[in-house]
Write a structure and sequence with these properties.
The complex is a heterodimer.
Chain A lengths: L1 H31 L6 H19 L3 H22 L10 H22 L10 H4 L1 E4 L2 E4 H23 L1 H11 L1 H6 L4 H26 L7 H15 L4 H21 L4 H15 L13
Antiparallel strand pairs in A: 1-2
Chain B lengths: L1 H4 L6 E4 L4 H14 L1 H4 L2 H27 L7 H17 L4 H23 L4 H20 L10 E2 L9 H28 L1 H11 L1 H6 L4 H27 L1 E2 L1 H4 L3 H13 L5 H17 L4 H17 L3 H10 L8 E4 L12
Antiparallel strand pairs in B: 1-4, 2-3
Helix pairs in contact in B: 4-8, 4-11, 4-13, 4-14, 5-6, 5-7, 5-11, 6-11, 8-9, 8-11, 9-11, 13-14, 13-15, 13-16, 14-16
The chains are: A mainly alpha, B mainly alpha.
């Protein structure tokens, strides 16, 4: 019994990471209607940027977050301005295949620059320290990641609901033509939206690099996990993605407990089960599963 | 469909009636069928790879170019086709040559089972959903001892009794037959009434619904048929190498290859994927020594093509020189016109 409670808690904590990574993906779709297939590869790129920052400047990984997150945001801005804005308003196919091409380019580039070996970001004591909740040991790192995810969710919710920038973004999403007539440079809003999404991807990537070891090929699975969190949670609701991340985290932890090789498999099965039984996700909103 | 909507209207929709194109393709197939008598073993092996890629690319193009749904998970069917062939040949003693069809059937079955779930997703979400399916298959196969687990399966023992020449020629003709079948089947499908339904679904699902097309059934049939072709092609590709592993057969690199070939050659045309596959093999001969830089170059070329020449090389050539070998589209022609003119899409 205690054992399963432990699994459940570990699953929820793991879910915090999926929720954060899924938020980056659902934000770019929500604002730009672009599904960024290179999402997972950018996440891994951020982890490698972290490694580079730590080795060149000697700061710890937690400090490196402060440099990598703005760098990824800038990268997102430039990516949208230089490349993806050209694809907006064309077919659905174009942005999909462009980001797919980027994904192939990025993981091969990482392999060329950083070799195919596994690496990790060493954050020292934070990684191993744990806290005892009765008979259950909970690591400080997963707790910290979950707390960070919740903080990002709350901040984004405030940004979208309460600020002028948030209002302009929502107006652009609802009706780009009219918003442009009101004097808003919608292409700039798209670029800022992508910057925000990629900053979150950068943050997720740093946390990912601290919590696990990674290699250039890790991006594909990271995209799928983030995507599953979004779909299980229900499209169109950022808090849905949080719940979706938790559900995925629990599924993977239970799968892993049953058989070490089957963690991700169990998550994929739960994803398909949701498509069949509850395609609009946990938190359906509006006309659903788009 | 067209006649039903406008029984006596003029001008009306009709297909071009090409003779030269199909004749040219028939001739090419005949010349290629004789290759075992004049080609070296290495040439034959390379051509098998080429034919398998043509069939896979035709299937991907049928989905994305003609029906309008993009998959980045076709490697699921490559792997299922290959593994079905290996498992049936090794465990059930079926000769590997006819087992190619069983590989295709297994992939079609998997496609039919996954379709009800995947079709809940639209557009780009459908695309990533198909990738999840491929990952699910990769993990399941890689953890199943009966399928060789992490180390994979080999056909060496099964094929030991078959003389090397018989083996090479047999695989070659199967691959050629598959490529020819994929081209002919898709050509005939698109020129039939069903083909018009397929394109109507791509252009506008709700208007397709409103003229009485069963959109769900059309999509299901096209998806399952594409899975069948891709499964046969995967079976052929790994019959050629005689060794299969889960990480290689279910890798996303397979679909990246199909996409590259279709985008470079020309999406939404039957000639495009053939031209794209030719270009791919030429580039590979030139650039393969550069390792990952070569893959990066292919990615950059594909992105540039998407942005600046989305109709691909065949589309550009067809537009400029009026080339149309296998026109599968319908177009408006005046009733009195004796033969239609070359057309810029």
């Amino acid at each position: 019994m205690i054992e399963w409670l432990d699994t459940l808690i570990q699953g929820i904590l793991l879910g915090g990471f999926f929720a954060l990574s899924g938020l980056g993906l659902s934000l770019s779709f929500g604002i730009l209607r672009i599904v960024n297939i290179a999402h997972g590869d950018f996440l891994v790129v951020a982890a490698y940027l972290g490694v580079a920052t730590v080795t060149t400047s000697g700061v710890g990984p937690l400090t490196a977050i402060l440099m990598v997150v703005p760098a990824m945001g800038l990268l997102g801005y430039l990516l949208q301005r230089g490349l993806l804005n050209r694809a907006i308003g064309t077919s659905e196919l174009t942005p999909l295949l462009i980001t797919f091409g980027l994904s192939i380019i990025l993981h091969n580039l990482l392999q060329e620059i950083a070799s195919a070996d596994y690496q990790s970001l060493d954050a020292g004591l934070v990684e191993t320290a744990s806290l005892a909740l009765g008979p259950i040991q909970v690591g400080w790192l997963p707790v910290g990641i979950l707390a960070a995810a919740l903080a990002v969710y709350a901040a984004l919710d405030l940004l979208m609901a309460r600020t002028r920038f948030g209002r302009i973004v929502r107006a652009t999403v609802d009706d780009p033509e009219t918003t442009a007539l009101m004097g808003v440079d919608t292409r700039r809003i798209y670029a800022l939206g992508m910057a925000l999404s990629m900053a979150i991807v950068g943050f997720s990537g740093m946390l990912y690099g601290i919590k696990s070891s990674f290699n250039p090929q890790a991006g594909g699975s990271q995209l799928l996990f983030a995507f599953e969190a979004v779909i299980i949670g229900g499209m169109g609701s950022i808090w849905g993605t949080l719940a979706g991340g938790m559900a995925l985290g629990i599924a993977q932890t239970v799968g892993y407990k049953l058989h070490a090789g089957w963690g991700a498999f169990a998550g994929h099965v739960v994803f398909f089960a949701f498509l069949l039984l509850r395609p609009s996700g946990l938190f359906a909103r509006g006309n659903g599963h788009g | 469909m067209a006649e039903a909507m406008h029984p006596s209207a003029r001008p009306h929709w009709r297909h071009a009636r090409p003779l030269a194109g199909p004749a040219l393709f028939g001739l090419a197939a005949a010349v290629l069928a004789l290759a075992p008598w004049y080609g070296s073993a290495d040439t034959l092996r390379l051509l098998v790879e080429f034919f398998a890629l043509v069939a896979m690319a035709q299937a991907w193009n049928l989905l994305a170019g003609y029906t309008g749904f993009v998959s980045v998970g076709q490697q699921a069917f490559v792997g299922i086709g290959a593994y079905a062939l290996f498992a049936i040949a090794i465990h059930a003693g079926v000769h590997p040559f006819p087992a190619v069809l069983l590989g295709g059937a297994a992939a079609a079955l998997a496609g039919a089972l996954a379709a009800p779930a995947l079709f809940r997703l639209r557009g780009p979400h459908f695309a990533i959903g198909t990738w999840v399916l491929a990952e699910l298959c990769r993990i399941a196969v890689g953890n199943t001892d009966w399928l060789g687990g992490a180390s994979g399966l080999t056909l060496a023992r099964v094929l030991r009794s078959v003389p090397a020449e018989t083996r090479a020629h047999g695989i070659y003709w199967i691959a050629l037959g598959l490529a020819a079948f994929s081209i002919a089947a898709i050509y005939l499908l698109l020129r039939s009434r069903s083909g018009l339904a397929v394109r109507t679904v791509r252009d506008n699902e709700s208007s397709a619904q409103s003229v009485g097309i069963d959109v769900g059934r059309v999509k299901f049939a096209v998806y399952v048929f594409a899975a069948f072709l891709t499964g046969c092609a995967g079976a052929v590709a790994y019959l050629n190498t005689m060794f299969v592993s889960a990480d290689a057969a279910f890798t996303v690199d397979w679909v990246a290859l199909m996409i590259f070939v279709v985008i470079i050659g020309g999406i939404g045309t039957i000639e495009g994927p053939i031209l794209g596959a030719l270009i791919y093999f030429v580039l590979r001969e030139w650039l393969a020594d550069y390792g990952t830089w070569y893959v990066i170059t292919l990615g950059l070329i594909a992105i540039a093509a998407m942005l600046f020449a989305p109709q691909g090389l065949w589309g550009l050539a067809a537009g400029r020189f009026g080339l149309r070998l296998l026109p599968a589209d319908t177009r408006l022609v005046p009733d009195s016109a004796p033969e239609e003119k070359p057309h810029v899409p």
